[in-house]
Structure formats: structure tokens, C-alpha cells
Design a protein that fits this description.
Chain lengths: 364, 364
Amino acid sequence: MNSPEWQKIEVLADRKYPVYLGTSLEELGAYLPALPEKVEHILIISHQKVLDLYGGRLMKGLGDYRVNLLVVPAGEAEKSLERLSQLTTAALGYGADRKTLVIALGGGVIGDLAGFFASVFMRGVRLIQVPTTLLAQVDSSIGGKVAVNHPAGKNILGAFHPPQAVWTDFTTLESLPWLEVENGLAESIKHALIADPGLFNFFETQVDSIKQRDPLIWRTMVTRSSSVKVKIVSQDEREQGIRGLLNLGHSFGHALETEMNYRGVTHGQGVSIGIVAAAHLAGAKGFISLAEVERIKQLLRNYGLPIAIPGQNPQALLQRMQADKKNQGGRKILILPQGIGNAVISQDCTDNEILAAWQQVISG
Amino acid sequence: MNSPEWQKIEVLADRKYPVYLGTSLEELGAYLPALPEKVEHILIISHQKVLDLYGGRLMKGLGDYRVNLLVVPAGEAEKSLERLSQLTTAALGYGADRKTLVIALGGGVIGDLAGFFASVFMRGVRLIQVPTTLLAQVDSSIGGKVAVNHPAGKNILGAFHPPQAVWTDFTTLESLPWLEVENGLAESIKHALIADPGLFNFFETQVDSIKQRDPLIWRTMVTRSSSVKVKIVSQDEREQGIRGLLNLGHSFGHALETEMNYRGVTHGQGVSIGIVAAAHLAGAKGFISLAEVERIKQLLRNYGLPIAIPGQNPQALLQRMQADKKNQGGRKILILPQGIGNAVISQDCTDNEILAAWQQVISG
């Protein structure tokens, strides 16, 4: 993954911003003078482990700036109002002001938390997303959605806060633990399932190369999967329509994560289960064939992603879906695959149909 | 204040929205179908005392909607992340979703808190401001700024979340306690001082009528003062320039409020002291004459607003100004009057000059 080529694609939203794919951490500093407003003070928000790995490389380019580090413990539980408050205290202690630039260096949790902090600190400061995980690179760093969790549900408090830029260095993926890779693969497979049948086929035929982290194959996978996200959010930044498709698997997955209190299930595993549940429901409604349901399950299984959750309580999981942000007027809004590479928003799923889908992933 | 005339002025910001002046609470329900998206569920966020006075009148027009009340205790301390979290729990319990409309019924605290809740709940839901105090009617309900406080400073966490509409019923001012009237007068006098010399003169000549709450005089005062705010935020919604002038008196005032932990000083009293401190500083820099400083102090005194704070520690107050959101790169940005009806943004005030201004309001 040390190929020197990099490319820039643009998110064409309310405010246009670039996504740099395959750049290097060291070069970010040299890019900052290209921002419309001058940068003086930088807050890097990250985990200690990520700083140990990449902090030095990133700092190499930032010698001209006043930089402070805000270190956040690992874990989804850190996406909280309490952590937001602590970041605020620390930021003010470092003299952060409205001109401060926040750099989110890390995975999805850091991107969401640092992004939400940037969106509300002094009513909003600038943000650059530097995603270091597969999930963050193909998905969460793109599109401006930021949030923290609430005891009653995931990502319940948040904002749309598009970054100044997304800065993606593929080399950070080389050392990524496989559990983290899984998180990204689940979202990448979801992108393929909703919008790119060719990418779905690529995942089916490149299982071994992807598992062995072949650099060229990964470059293709990350670029193509990011492009699905860029294309969709460029059409619908505020999720009034088509962007909703990206939630495929997530209403089920969030319910499972919340029910398990974010323990014993990763986000990728939740999404994988959620995709399977959505596939079963789509199968029951005739949107996809049973063969396609099996094809989806087989692909997830090939990458070691779970397709069953024995022992869970379907009623409790259904109850957890009440707080989903997509719900409207008490009706549950679900995204269902319609064939491979296409998906639809379904507003008329009954609780019984949803329960039956949960039953199928519980019984496996 | 029961004149049937009402008027509509428009805030011409990123998204245009109307400010209805002199309408009635009962009529809001009949206005809701004019919103671009249908309203089904409404959350009214208010204080119990305000609901006792005006809840019935507002509800009269809302019979066609599903309405829930979220009651918040009184006091600036309620503008907190803790209260935001509690509102979130309660809102989800009532089945609130992305289509929910939040109505902020009350004064500045309710507008800020309910507005910030609306800005982050599920990444943003619709908001209508129904200001019931003079301060909220002439100032805080207009312009989209919402926020909560943080132990380290006032309004440190917030957003720009313009409402769908501002709905102002002058009759709610009839029973307003005089301390609340003072809060609004301080902001109205500030509007006059920065942008409307005619209004400043009106305040000088109408002291008795205003103190006696003459309905016609109040109608003029509220309309003219609101119009200053509408005009300024229409030119600069995001406070990149001219909107900053509205902060005259507030850097000093917020420091005083924070130093006193929001006890024993109202917002209006803080702003009044802040205006006097800014006037002294402007006088020391030659932006206004000493006669003008006296004229400003005399006007505030005539309305019972404080112009001195004996016993405070100037160094501690200076220290509190470090966390001000307007600061840039460690420099304090202050708004100073330049004559009556005009103001400027000053970036070069030294700590010694600021200390001297504090000294003058401390020694009275």
C-alpha cells in the first residue's frame, strides 16, 4: 500500500469539499495553507494508541502551527455528552477559539465525537477528518454526519458538520486489527449491496486477496467503496431521500448494539446481522429471491462476519427500534435490498414482519 | 397592548424566515399549515410558570396536533448538557422523531435551551420561537443562535439553528416582572447604542411612559428594537462581521455573570455593567466623548439598571474574559461604541486598558 498515486474526489454538497484518497499523513501540514481561512491553532483529537502509531508522522507536517492533543479513551461509550464536556474544558484550557481547526485522527468513534465537538464548540469550528480505519475511510469520514450516543439510543444527538477535507492515508490500514477490518468490510459490502453490483461481485471473487490485504486490491476496494458514499451524499447531504439507503442494516444493527449495551458486538458485526435481517425481510416481501438472501449471507460468512445471534430476545430488539431516528409518526422506516446492487426505503413493514426477521437471525 | 394590528418582518438569512410582531398565542395553530412540511407532533418546551400563564392560550390553536409538554425549571443553570440529556430522554419517551416541531415558549433561557435541543436532536428538528419576555422578543428569539452553558463559560456549546418562525405576542409583556423588563431594556438600549440613534433618543425622552408600560410606546420600542436585530442578522447570520456588534457589553457582562456563577446578577444587569465598561474603554481610547459616556450611564440609571459593581476583583474578571468566544489567537476582541448609534470591533485593547475599564465600574 505504498503506491505513490493518490486521487481527489469531491463531495458536491451545500459546501463542496475534497476527499483525498491515498495521500500521506506527513503531507497534511503542507495542504493546510490551501484552506480558505488561515490556520493558527490545531486540536488533534485521537486515541493514545493511534497517536503512538501515527501521531509522529502527522506532526511532521505541522511544525508551523500551534498544536494541542486531546486524547480520548477507546470505545463507543466515549461518544457521550460527558466526553464532549471534558473535551470542551480541555480545549478552552489550550486557548482554543473560533478559528481553531479540529483534526479527527482515528476511526469512526473519533470522527463522530471530534466532529460533534467541532460542530458545537463556540457554535462550530473547522474540522478535517483523517480516518485511520477501513470503516472511517470508506464510510464515516465522508458526508458530514457527526453525533454522540444517548442512553436511549445511538447517535441520537448530532449534527451535519461537513469537514474542510477528508485526508486518507491507505498505509494506516496495514496494521489494522482484523476486528476493525471487519467493521469496514461490513459497510463496504453494504455499499456494494445498495448501489454497486460490480463491487459486490468483486467482494465475491477477491475473498482471499482481501483477507491477505493485497495492496492493489485494497486500493480498489477502498476507492470504489468511498466513491459510492461520495456519490450518494453529493445527491442528498441532509438525508431527505436517497441518503437514507445507506442505513441498510443499521436500524436492526443499532437495536442490537443498544440492546447489548455496545458490549460483545462490534459495529461491523451489528451491521452484518442487520444486513441479514433486512435480507430476510426483503425475501419475505418478495423484493429479493431466496437465492439472493443466501448469496448475501454467504458473502458475509466468507469474510468471517456473523449472520446469526442465538439467544437474543426478538421482542426486546423490536422495542429498541422505537427510538430509531428514521421512524416517522410512529411508523418504522426500513431499508431493504431489492436485488443485488439496489435498495429501497420501505415504510410499511409491520412489527410482525420485523419480529419474523429477527427470529430468523436468532435461529440462524 | 391589545391593538389588533400586527406586522411581519423577514430575516433574510441563508434560509429566510418571518418574525411576526404583535400576533396572538391563540393564532399560532392556524399558522402551522403554512409551514413547508406538515406538522404532526409538537413538543412545547417551557417553564411551569409560563405554561400556567400562557399554555392554555397557546393550546387553544393546537387541537389538531399531538402535543407534549417538556417542563424545565427556571434559571440560567438549566442551560446545561445535563438538561439537554434529560429533554432527550423525555422527547424519545413521547415518540418524538425527525418530523417533530419544537416550540420554545418562554424567555431567553428557554429559547437557547429548546433551540439547542432542536438543533442536535436527531441531527436537527424544526423550531418555532414564541418569546414571552422583552429580552426574547427584541433579541434572543431572532437570529438563530442557540446554546447551552459550560462550567468554563457561557454559551460555549451551541449552534446556528434558525427557527421556522418567530411568533411574538405583545400581551405576554403586560405581566412581566420588572427584573425581566430590565433584561430586555438593557438589550434594547444596546441596539439603540450600536445602530439607532433615534431609538436611543426615544429611550431618553420616554422614560416615564416606558416605565409605566404605555402600550403604544412599548409597541414602538419592541418593533424598532427587533428591527435593529433583524436588519443586522440579515446581513451577517453567521457572525463573520457586523453581527459581532451585537456583542457590545457582553464580553464584560458574560465575565461578570460567570464570575458570580449566575447568582445575584441578572443578564440585563450584566449587560448594563458591560455597556458601561465598554463605554469607559471607548472613552479612554477617544472613540466617544466623556459627555457621551455620561449620557449612556444616565440612560441606564434612569431605567434602574446598575452602572457599578463595588467589591468585585478586576483581575478575576479579566481572567474570565479568556474563554470569550470572540477571542482570536489569544487576542481579546471587544465591541466599543463610537458615538451614539454606532459601534466598532476593536482587536487591539490591552489587558491594562480592560483592567482600567473594570476598575471604573468597580469604583462606580
